[in-house]
């Protein structure tokens, strides 16, 4: 198959946008070129280019279609309109089955023509998060000024331009030229294939593949660190970003002045990461090392000495600022910052951060005894947990909120559990983070998220399919993880409204689906009614899953589905529910008598098993319903002609439905 190579060469693309742009390019190209059946699609990205290579068919397949027109004998105007629509003449039409039909042949279109037709509109609607215009000559926008379009098919240029009407598209036309490294190999060169393109770029100091650049950065950084007895602090996100900033990454090692090494290691790492994109190093004992890795975008003639010296100078200035904030913040206990929180708006409808702190103090007082935490310490941690938001250091580095609060709390004599809770109540921040483990920290972390959910739900700010601006899904998932990982027996219903409880339960279901587990069983258990104890929900779900895997469980579920379907149909037809009490005197068949007797024996035992959380026993109790229910369906006609018998048998099935609903809403089970 012919090889298609496309490169979009521009000024520097923000690193955070590159991977998504490459994915969008592949998706849009595969859709636009679907008639050419693109395969072996590969994308690459870097600071100045998005590249796509693929194999495509040489041409679209020829198509033959039959278009049915008006009825034979229809007015001439109807036929004329049909012919005009399809650009056909009268002699091309034949009669078939009482209609006039047109046999059409859509000719094959060469691949180059399809590419030239599809690419200009695709590029004009490309979904960059932010785009710019760079000339009054054209309304065409790109993330940064687009300088070249390379588009070759089997070595030949696919000619097209971005001009549209009077808009000249900045004069951009497809060609076969690109450029190498801006400084190490400036100037354009021509290519005719992907292999040629990749090799020529490498010869001109451009590593095309971002994964290769990342691997090179990791390897060279580790080598430099190990040479001095240190190791690199793992930071995949930063390495990915550095890869997006460099085409020819060259790792260099610099020194941190010893005068700054008494700063908290988080301050050192954050200052280097946020301001300068440096990789931090650590000693074998885990403490911060007085070195950093800077990745240049070129191999300097002096071995990087000038680059290292310049970056060391910049870092000294940055750390001097951090030193100032650290010293100033240490002068005041956290409690003295509380009045400033009253000046910081949490949300216009929810008051200030100080108002929020007061809510957290109350919540912690209620939650602490339920999770085995010291109430006084939990309330103290809640009082101080947001104070560092108005400190100088967190004002400069917001990512250090909580971290700095812990340092400042310890510096002024706060209890270690209180200080740790100030730091840890933000955890987990992401899927890979550990959850708080100390009782005081658990208390504050739960209170923080519960307040967030309850408050925003109360003012109608709920997540939608398209957005979650207040990260409420993440807050709910945080509660799920804290409860699950610590196996907390805590009924959330006493702190949240039913809709918030259901929202948290839905996050649990989604998390289980992510883990590849039976999320539908959790949905079924939650559907049985109010239950804010997530561990009880999970335990019951586990017992139900085990039961459903047995023959009794599978057959009982089938019988339940049959009963519910009959009830649904008949209740809809009759316009009424059959949940009213059973009339024992109308139980004429021995099978319905046996089913009723089984329910009489089962219902109180099942209720007791569930109340005492003896879930395995509850499933065994439920299994006793299988045989009489199977016999009922084998030998009893529900829709009996006798109206009284029919109604009573529907009441009996309704009773089966209610009994099983004590365990779960079986209608929510999938498969």
Please give the structural blueprint.
Blueprint: E1 3-10, H1 15-32, E2 39-45, E3 49-55, E4 63-71, H2 76-86, E5 93-96, E6 99-106, H3 111-124, E7 146-153, E8 156-157, E9 174-175, E10 177-179, E11 188-190, H4 194-203, H5 210-227, E12 231-232, H6 236-245, E13 250-255, H7 265-276, E14 279-282, E15 288-296, H8 305-329, H9 338-341, E16 345-347, E17 351-352, H10 353-367, H11 375-384, H12 392-396, H13 403-411, H14 416-424, H15 439-458, H16 472-486, H17 498-514, H18 519-526, H19 534-548, H20 551-574, H21 590-611, H22 615-623, H23 626-635, H24 643-661
Parallel strand pairs: 7-9
Antiparallel strand pairs: 1-3, 1-7, 2-3, 4-6, 5-6, 7-8, 10-11, 12-14, 13-15, 14-15, 16-17
Short structural summary:
The protein is an alpha+beta fold and 671 residues long. It is built from 24 helices and 17 strands. It is flat and about 100 Å long.
């Amino acid at each position: 198959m012919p090889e298609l190579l496309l490169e979009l060469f521009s000024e520097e693309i923000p690193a955070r946008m590159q991977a998504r742009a490459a994915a969008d390019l592949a998706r849009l190209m595969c859709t636009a070129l679907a008639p050419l059946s693109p395969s072996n699609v590969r994308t690459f990205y870097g600071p100045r280019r998005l590249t796509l290579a693929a194999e495509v068919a040489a041409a679209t397949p020829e198509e033959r279609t039959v278009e049915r027109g008006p009825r034979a004998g229809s007015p001439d105007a109807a036929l004329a309109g049909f012919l005009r629509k399809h650009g056909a003449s009268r002699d091309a039409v034949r009669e078939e089955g009482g209609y006039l039909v047109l046999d059409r042949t859509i000719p094959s279109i060469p691949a180059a023509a399809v590419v030239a037709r599809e690419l200009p509109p695709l590029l004009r609607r490309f979904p960059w998060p932010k785009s710019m215009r760079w000339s009054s000559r054209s309304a065409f926008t790109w993330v940064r000024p687009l300088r070249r379009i390379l588009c070759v098919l089997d070595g030949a240029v696919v000619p097209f331009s971005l001009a549209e009407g009077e808009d000249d598209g900045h004069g951009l036309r497809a060609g076969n030229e690109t450029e190498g490294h801006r400084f190490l190999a400036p100037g354009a060169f021509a290519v005719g294939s992907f292999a040629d393109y990749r090799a020529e770029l490498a010869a001109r100091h451009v590593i095309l593949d971002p994964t290769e650049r990342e691997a090179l950065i990791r390897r060279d950084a580790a080598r430099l660190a190990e040479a001095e007895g240190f190791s690199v602090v793992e930071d995949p996100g930063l390495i990915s970003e550095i890869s997006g900033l460099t085409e020819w990454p060259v790792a260099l090692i610099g020194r941190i002045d010893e005068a700054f090494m008494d700063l908290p290691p988080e301050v050192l790492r954050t200052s280097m990461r946020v301001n300068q994109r440096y990789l931090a190093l650590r000693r074998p004992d885990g403490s911060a090392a007085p070195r950093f890795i800077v990745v240049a975008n070129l191999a300097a003639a002096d071995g990087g000495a000038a680059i290292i010296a310049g970056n060391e100078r910049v870092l000294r200035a940055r750390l001097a600022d951090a030193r100032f904030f650290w010293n100033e913040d240490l002068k005041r206990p956290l409690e003295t910052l509380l009045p400033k929180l009253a000046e910081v708006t949490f949300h216009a409808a929810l008051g200030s951060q100080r108002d929020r702190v007061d809510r957290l103090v109350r919540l912690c007082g209620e939650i602490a005894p339920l999770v085995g935490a010291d109430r006084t310490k939990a309330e103290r941690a809640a009082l101080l947990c947001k104070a560092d938001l108005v400190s100088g250091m967190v004002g400069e580095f917001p990512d250090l909120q909580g971290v700095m609060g812990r340092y400042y709390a310890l510096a002024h004599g706060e209890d270690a559990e209180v200080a740790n809770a100030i730091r840890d109540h933000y955890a987990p921040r992401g899927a890979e983070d550990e959850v708080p483990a100390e009782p005081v920290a658990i208390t504050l972390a739960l209170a923080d998220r519960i307040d967030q959910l309850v408050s925003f739900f109360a003012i109608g700010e709920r997540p939608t399919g398209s957005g979650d601006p207040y990260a409420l899904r993440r807050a709910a998932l945080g509660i799920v993880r804290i409860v699950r990982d610590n196996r907390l027996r805590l009924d959330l219903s006493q702190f949240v409204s039913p809709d918030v409880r259901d929202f948290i339960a839905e996050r649990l279901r989604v998390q289980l689906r992510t883990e590849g587990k039976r999320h539908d069983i959790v949905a079924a258990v939650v559907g049985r009614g109010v239950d804010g104890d997530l561990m009880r929900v999970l335990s019951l779900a586990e017992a139900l899953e085990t039961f459903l895997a047995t023959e009794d469980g599978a057959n009982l579920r089938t019988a339940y589905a049959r009963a519910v379907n009959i009830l649904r149909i008949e209740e809809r037809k009759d316009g009424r529910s059959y949940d009213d009490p059973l009339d024992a005197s109308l139980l004429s068949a021995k099978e319905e008598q046996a089913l009723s007797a089984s329910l009489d024996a089962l219902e109180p035992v099942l209720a007791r098993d569930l109340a005492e959380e003896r879930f395995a026993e509850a499933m065994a109790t439920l299994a006793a319903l299988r045989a009489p229910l199977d016999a009922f369906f084998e030998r009893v006609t529900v829709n009996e002609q006798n109206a009284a018998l029919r109604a009573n048998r529907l009441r009996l099935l309704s009773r089966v439905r209610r009994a099983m609903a004590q365990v779960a809403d079986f209608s929510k089970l999938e498969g």
